[in-house]
Amino acid sequence: MKLIVAIIQPDKLDEVHQALIDAEIFRITVSRVTGHGQQEDPELYRGESVRPSLLPKVRLEIAVNDGFVDPTINAILSAAKHGDGTIGDGKIFITPLEDVIRIRTGERGGSAI
Description:
Layout: E1 2-8, H1 13-22, E2 29-35, E3 43-45, E4 48-50, E5 55-64, H2 69-80, E6 90-96
Antiparallel strand pairs: 1-5, 1-6, 2-5, 3-4
C-alpha cells in the first residue's frame, strides 16, 4: 500500500479529478493549501516589486494498493500539467503506507482502502 500526495495548481483540480475517475481511482481527499516552490511571481505593490511568500495550491491525498500506484501517478501527470509543463505545476510524493483501518467496520489493510 502507498500514500500518494500530490500538490497541484487549483485550476487543474477538475481535470485531475476526472483523470483519476477515468483511471478508476475514486477515493481521494482534497485540501486547499498554500505553498511556494521555484516559481517567481513578483507582484507590484505601491510601485515596488514584492514576491508573494505563499501561493494557493491544492493537496490531494490518495491511499492505494500497489497495483494502483502507476495508474494514479499517470492520471495526475497527464492532467496536472499546463501545456508542456511550467514551473509551479506541482509535485507528487509517494510514501509507504503501513496500515489502514476502516473506522466503521474495523477492517484493516488493503481491503480497507
